[in-house]
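A brief tutorial aside. Many learners find it easier to grasp structure tokens once they have seen a single protein encoded end to end. The record that follows does exactly this for SPIN90/Ldb17 leucine-rich domain-containing protein. Read the sequence first, then the structure, and try to relate runs of similar tokens to stretches of the chain.
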Amino acid sequence: MSKKSNDFIDFRRQLRLISEDRRNFRGNQAILDMRANSVDSSEEEDGPDISYYERFSFLVNGDVNQVPYFTNFLFAQSEQQIIEAFKSLPNLILFLKNCFLAGSENDTLLFHSMMLILIIQSLDVDLSPFCDPAVFALIFRNLQYYNVMIRIYSLTMITNLIIDYPQIYESLSEAHFLDILMNLLVFEDRDGKSEKSELPYRAKESLFFELANAIATIAKLKIFKPEDCPKLWDISVMFINDGDFSDSIEKSIGVLGILASAGFVQQFPQNIMEYFASCVLDGISILKSFIFFLKNMGIEFFKELLQYDLLENIILVISNDVKENGQVIYQFLGEIQFHTYDENFIFSTLDLLDKGRFQTRVNIIYYLSRILTSTSTKLIQNLIEYDILFCIEELLSVDDSEVSVVCLTFLEIFFNTFKSASSQKITEIPNADVILSQITDIISTISDEVDEQINRILALAA
């Protein structure tokens, strides 16, 4: 089965974080206090040495009043202990389903039954009995409930069901699931008045995370219909426009990329275009998601972003080569064969050949091998002045086959281009003799194809 949105430990940790804002939530304070107490138990303790079957045999007999106590007890146990509990209580799944449905009339029962279901969903237990129209109907009601906690857990629950049973999306779609998600931030109070509430930070973060995870799941599984695309697009743009939570933004940009790959693209407002041009400055997860999005949007969209200072922001990233953002950028620029005459970019790149992180330097070599042509006379001269072959020598000395292949590919292109653009001999390039000797030692160490490439390089220098 697929990995759920929360694994066992992270789920309990998330509840603890949310509980910090519990006094700000609308809902039953006793429920929230009970939840807070349940997650305070140590995750390292083995728990009491008692028989699960004897302690919770009442569940088989349908005593729903004991469900809150069972919830608290399970939160104090290890994953293995909970699995053992389910072996002792084979009827627990059907019982929890009935408790969940009965929770439509009882908030306490609803809350704790959902807590138990979410614990079970993190343990790869068969929950196919929950793929039921009555369950879906109650989840849909919960997603419009005035209590934000109920909304969060209901959304987590339905997303996990979609992950394990993608076929249920057909029924959810017919019931206007995405329309409900689009209104997830609108709350009705007990008097029936609708409002877009200002939620406590933790609650908003959790709600946004689960909503982003839901649409990302639908997109990644590619179970959406053509008529769903505008709604998925609008929800994703909403997350980016909100700009508060990086996890939600990362997933949303990825969803836009999947929609673009399916042929659905809409015009972006100017503020979103400005964000796209600056998001290369954000964390690596957002950058990778953005690059996936760019690949699916196409080169023309990339060129359009250059009008919004994208190149200037790229230069800022590569000039401060302290994380892997720079190497990811050069990999992408090489893939699209991006060439520019911008001197700041060129000299920042050349400077990194000497001072950059190892993998950044490798990816720069890859990038250069993708843009060198017979007309790159000035760039070739710049590379020679920056002692490019000394950089290649250092990279080859690491004795990494993948790095060697990147360097050899560059050398073949570089020498070919140099030979066609200059009357000088390749051996006159500084450090050429050292490189030629070095690559000779690589023969018979990687593959026959690499040996053939080395022989071609040596022939160019002969």
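Self-check: Residues 321-368 form one domain. If you spotted this yourself, you are ready for the next section.
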